[in-house]
Design goal:
Blueprint (H helix, E strand, L loop, with lengths): L2 E2 L13 E2 L10 H4 L3 H29 L3 H13 L5 H13 L3 H14 L4 H12 L12 H10 L4 H24 L3 H34 L1 E5 L3 E5 L8 E6 L3 E8 L2 E5 L5 E5 L3 E3 L1
Antiparallel strand pairs: 1-2, 3-6, 3-9, 4-5, 6-7, 7-8
Helix pairs in contact: 2-3, 3-4, 4-5, 5-6, 8-9
């Protein structure tokens, strides 16, 4: 796939290369044509849908190059409205918002990009850069070394990548078992058993990682403050005692929702209630 680079945000920031979706033409023999008519009728709208998103992505990159950051952000948002979510769109959207000095939305979209691509150094770099621009720097309590290692291991791959690797290993295990059963040569049978055992162990490991990540995703929800200044109360009531104040870009764990209120927990252990309209979930 051919790639061209888009300009950097600043000398210290990074951007992803502009990507193009290439159209591929294939010729199908006449006897097979009618067999694929139903498939093509379904596939054609999907192809048009994908081409539209790719065209918008290129348009957003061109607007960003021209310094039209508000227009670029609107174009990237339009791609997401089409249901085309990937880390590149979220990342470029974060870059556009960073240029507009909307640091809350920039951090929100960098976090969403990081969820979909854990290993991207560019995303982590720009996320750290955006966090330096906000008011609240909430310290995290010290963690044991083993907890840090486990957390780092779980965050190497995204949920989708773990599922893909797990599927590959289960397929390899099946192939190894098949070779063990049908191969006439004993050396091939031994190789099949070894492949089955190794792939089965790896598949089980990735299944456990997948279950852990899925549990975290469903139980540990995080959000970002989008308003300039938000009062956090001790209860879901505007008349309740003021617990503390958060500013744009602050990250929190979303624990509970009650009407227009959300109960949040900070990394340092502080807990309180704030207006749901002031924040957005990652």
């Amino acid at each position: 796939m051919k790639k061209t680079s888009i300009p950097k945000i600043s000398p210290t920031e990074k951007t992803i290369p502009q990507k193009k979706v290439l159209r591929h033409r294939t010729s199908v023999g006449f006897p097979l044509l009618w067999a694929f008519v139903g498939f093509l009728c379904t596939f054609a709208p999907m192809r048009i849908f994908a081409d539209e998103a790719a065209s918008l992505f290129q348009q957003g990159n061109q607007q960003y190059q021209a310094g039209q950051y508000a227009e670029a952000a609107a174009t990237y948002e339009e791609i997401l409205a089409l249901g085309k979510e990937n880390w590149q769109v979220y990342y470029n959207l974060g870059n556009a918002y960073f240029k507009l000095r909307q640091h809350g939305k920039a951090i929100l979209n960098y976090e969403r990009a990081l969820q979909r691509n854990r290993r991207s150094e560019d995303v982590r770099f720009n996320l750290d850069l955006a966090n330096l621009a906000i008011t609240d720097h909430i310290p995290e309590p010290p963690r044991s070394l083993i907890v840090v290692w486990i957390d780092a291991a779980l965050n190497v791959f995204s949920l989708q990548q773990v599922a893909l690797f797990g599927l590959i290993f289960w397929v390899l295990m099946f192939l190894g078992l098949t070779a063990n059963l049908i191969a006439g040569n004993r050396s091939w049978q031994r190789l099949g058993r070894r492949v089955a055992w190794g792939a089965g162990a790896a598949g089980l490991l990735f299944a456990l990682i997948f279950a852990t990540l899925l549990y975290r995703q469903r139980t540990e929800r995080y959000g970002i403050v989008l308003q300039k200044r938000v009062i956090v109360h001790s209860a879901p009531d505007a008349e309740a005692t003021e617990a503390f104040i958060l500013h744009e870009g602050a990250k929190f764990q979303l624990q509970e929702e009650s009407g227009q209120w959300a109960r949040v927990r900070l990394a340092d252990g502080k807990v309180g209630w704030l207006r749901r309209e002031a924040v957005e979930a990652i």
